[in-house]
Amino acid sequence: MRDPVRDRETVGSALSDAAVVLRAAGLSDARREALRIWDDLGGDTVRFHGAIARRAEGEPLPYVTGLSGFRHLTLRADRRALIPRPETEGLVDLVLRRACTGCIADVGTGSGCIALSLAQEGGYTSVLAIDRSAPALELARENARGQGISIQSVRADLTTALAARSLDALVSNPPYLTSREYHELDAGVRAWEPMEALDAGLEGMDVIVPLLQDGLRVLRPGGWLALELDARRARECARRAAASGWEDVSIQPDLFGRDRYLLARRSITP
After folding, report:
1. Based on the domain organization, do 255 and 141 belong to the same domain?
2. Which of 120, 195, 202, 226 is the most buried (most CB within 10 A)?
3. What count of Cα atoms within 13 Å lies in the side-chain half-sphere of residue 135?
4. Strand partners, 261
């Protein structure tokens, strides 16, 4: 017969030992992280000790536990895609306020966090999750199955698979760092998360520019484009959008007050 008191003492001892290991690795909130790992792994002692060792080596916490929260979802997270971040949740809000019905595509879907949130919270007839990475797209499919949410996954490079005037909205959290900025990232990001989801070339615009250009083709008149951006290039992105023929161009702040999102609309005039 199990002794509840002894069980509690064993768990407490395991958490204390794990916190010591994490603290020695330089993690300031070691006790909280140890508790989250324990909870996310369901108290599996063997997996817990392995996970603590991985975290102590610098692996990001969501990859260690295999779980990441995003809006109302708890998603599977691993090295096939970027870890969903709180800033990106604001992009979903902006889209839902402007285009919550019709057909929408999430380009560069990664884990599927944006597409799945839109499908869960919006009233869309179709949500397309597009990525050129087969492993990332499989992760998005796994998350869709895990959440019981229906999306259409498409393996393609950006908007190349989309027909003209087929969307009511186009949303993306694309790579937006310059190659130099990528190499200056914290090692906890650079060493673990996929480079192709972060590095956007010499000017940080290798993906945004094609989206600005071809977005006008794939959107119906009056359709919305919503992009997450690097604050350092937000105004330049807005300038390029206006120069390309987009209307109602604006830059919106994230939850920290930084210029983070570009909103633009295709002309209502055909």
Report:
1. yes
2. 226
3. 9
4. 228, 252
Average pLDDT for the chain: 93
User: Does 141 reside within a domain?
Assistant: yes
Q: Which domain holds residue 97?
A: 86-265
What is the rounded CA–CA span in Å between residue 163 and residue 108?
Answer: 17
Instruction: Report yes or no on 22 lying in a domain.
Output: yes
> 36 and 165 share a domain?
no
> Who's near 174: CB < 8 A, 6+ residues apart?
107, 108, 200, 207, 208, 211, 227, 228
Residues 210 and 152 in one domain: yes
Task: For residue 37, give both structure tokens.
Answer: 């790992």
| pLDDT one-digit tens code per residue, 40-96 | 998 888 899 999 999 999 999 999 999 999 999 999 999 999 999 999 999 999 999
Q: How many separate domains does the chain show?
A: 2
What's the pTM value of the predicted model, to 2 decimals?
A: 0.92
β-sheet bridge partners, residue 250: 263
3-48 per-position pLDDT tens digit: 443 444 477 888 989 999 999 998 888 999 999 999 999 888 889 9
Contacts (Cβ under 8 Å, ≥6 apart) of 263: 94, 98, 224, 225, 226, 248, 249, 250, 251, 252
